[in-house]
């Protein structure tokens, strides 16, 4: 009598493999969610830093004062130069529309207004130089948060 050897998996082996994968997925899914949230916050911080750097560059090259309005608790911001909004499509900031994903907000900012003068320095609403670094916190109100700092001496934007 000749027996043929079958190659492949039995139904039992397949069910055990699927069960183990399900158990691993149950433990890994919450970690994946936090990683995605963290990456969203990092991306929002990078986009805000890019908009601030571009605002400073625009102020220096165009010889105008550029204002960045960052309302706390909001997921939007606006950039204006001499009363003209620069945030949005088909403008200087066409690659970023001034809006974060829905749950991401500006948590805090120790600068009421962020204004860059024609030399790229931070000034207040009375055209006086700001002496303290401006620290902006972006993130989820009940979760992951990241900060960025605008150096008042140079106007450069740095990550903490």
CATH superfamily: minor pseudopilin epsh domain
Low-confidence stretches are: none
What is the name of the CATH topology? minor pseudopilin epsh fold
Radius of gyration: 25 Å
Number of domains: 1
Write out key terms for the chains shown:
single chain; 160 residues; alpha+beta; minor pseudopilin epsh fold; five-stranded antiparallel β-sheet
Give an overview in words:
The structure is a single chain. With 160 residues, this protein is of the alpha+beta class. The chain has one domain (11-159): 3-Layer(bab) Sandwich (minor pseudopilin epsh fold). The chain contains 1 helix and 9 strands, in the order αβββββββββ. The chain has one helix at residues 11-62, and strands spanning 66-69, 78-81, 84-85, 104-109, 114-116, 122-123, 134-140, 145-150, 157-159. The strands form 2 sheets. A 5-stranded antiparallel sheet has the order 3-2-1-5-6, with helices on one face. The chain has a 4-stranded antiparallel sheet with strand order 4-7-8-9, with helices on one face. β7 (134-140) and β8 form a beta hairpin. The radius of gyration is 25 Å and the shape is elongated. It starts with 10 loop residues before the first helix and ends with a strand. The mean pLDDT is 79.
């Amino acid at each position: 009598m000749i027996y043929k050897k079958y190659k492949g998996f039995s139904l039992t082996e397949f069910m055990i493999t699927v069960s183990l994968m399900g158990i691993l997925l149950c433990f890994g899914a919450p970690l994946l969610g936090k990683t995605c949230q963290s990456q969203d916050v990092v991306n929002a911080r990078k986009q805000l830093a890019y908009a601030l750097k571009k605002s400073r560059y625009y102020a220096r090259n165009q010889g105008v004062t550029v204002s960045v309005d960052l309302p706390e608790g909001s997921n939007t911001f606006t950039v204006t130069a001499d009363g003209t909004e620069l945030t949005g499509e088909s403008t200087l900031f066409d690659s970023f529309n001034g809006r974060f994903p829905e749950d991401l907000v500006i948590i805090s900012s120790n600068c009421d207004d962020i204004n860059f003068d024609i030399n790229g320095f931070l000034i207040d609403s009375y055209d006086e130089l700001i002496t303290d670094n401006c620290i902006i916190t972006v993130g989820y109100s009940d979760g992951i948060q990241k900060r960025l700092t605008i150096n008042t001496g140079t106007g450069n934007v740095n990550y903490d």
